[in-house]
Amino acid sequence: MLDDAGLQALREAARLSPDNLPLRRHLAEQLLAKGYLADAEAEFRAALVLAPKDADITAGLAEAFVRQSAYGAALSALEPFLASPGYPPRLGIIAARALLGEGETGKAAYRYYEAISRDPSVADPELAERLTVATTGLSSPPPPPAAAPPDSSEEEVERSKLTFADVAGMEAVKEALRVKLLLPIQQPELFAAYGKRAGGGVLLYGPPGSGKTHLARAAAGELGAAFVNVGLADILDMYVGSSERNLRATFDLARRNRPCVLFFDEVDALAARRSDMRQAHTRQLVNQFLAELDGVDQHANEGVLVLAATNAPWYIDVAFRRPGRFDQMVFVPPPDAAARAAILRILCRDKPLAEMDFDAVARATEHLVGADLKGVVDRAVEVKLQQSISAGRPIPMSTADLLAAAKGAKPTAVREWLATARNYVLHANESGAWDELMPWIKAKR
Ligand code: ADP
Predict the structure, then answer these.
(1) Regarding the domain delimited by 5-151, which CATH topology (the fold level of the hierarchy) does it fall under?
(2) Of 5, 108, 138, 341, which is least packed with CB atoms within 10 Å of its CB?
(3) pTM score > 0.70 for this model?
(4) For ligand 1, is residue 371 a contact (CB within 6 Å)?
(5) Is CATH 3.50.50.60 what the domain over 337-407 is classified as, yes or no?
(6) pLDDT band for position 151 (50/70/90)?
């Protein structure tokens, strides 16, 4: 499947001497450099088995994950290093890219500036610019870090004010969630009459920034439920036993606050765990997660609706997808033109506006997802604010302002994501698990 003769030869050599670490590493690095991401990932994993604590190999594996949008997996792979002070700064740069991909801009900026303060040669100007735009919307550099990033292992319960009315488009997705999550709680008699039991979680998957978190939050608001938002990479702890405690505490928090939507972001983080050397511990962690999902008895998770999101669904253990667990997978697609116009309309709702042609902006923002569009609106608002301050009166925002802000927008990795998805899915859809995704990867180039 590799169309590069040099790589083929290298791979053949590695196959003949599987324990030759320098060779394996070289092969993995070449694969990564040439963009064979899934193959590179497999080789780095194999190399990591030979040299478990090797920082370069871990960096390569994390890089391969990041470039496949598997940010949670990348963070999880890096975590054993990041937890100890004085870790190699270049690992901090990769972590920053993963955190930025997850929308954790504050933590990303912290990692980045911490890393370059120890080794200026690892600086990445392009990443620095994306961080600046993401954290401030302006071009002043963020302050250097003063303290360690906040520990978010125990998330607060949140009351979401968003409802499905705040989620543009995605009618099919909303309908699926309504049936799965909302109807059993809103109309228990109806479900009981058909002998159906509420339960089981939904796995939301799609490119970064397509609105998975937004949707989960809106589902909580729609239901009038509490919202517990957990970054899974955050609660995976390097010390045996602590992650299990964190998981249990998180489920208990949700159970104490029912009705509750319990949202796990970055579930692919568990997948990176399977590649590391602490196999037994990893299995234990996955089992604990599944046990919590199943509940000790059939009422344990009543009123707790479990949603999970990932950019990299192909990493999710099949055990997660059994009935009663994440038995439904819902694709959150990148928005088409109509959906982009609707998202823009929602994002601009409470701003002073001139006559707007959102369809024109939608046409000019192909390949942008919800998160990118939010960036466009934020930038346009920023400019308008400055102008209003100079003019001493509010100046409404116009179509031209949005178009100007859209010009400088760099899309997050939708195209790359679809290409990665195509690699995984075209050859692995025997079970029909990816049916929803098929039209997208066939249609989009
Ligand atoms: P993901 O979790 O898939 O990475 P997010 O949910 O964080 O993406 O989306 C980022 C932001 O984009 C949201 O906070 C929201 O403001 C905006 N957004 C995304 N999709 C939509 C949508 N369908 N309707 C309205 N806003 C959206």
Answers:
(1) 1.25.40
(2) 5
(3) no
(4) yes
(5) no
(6) very low
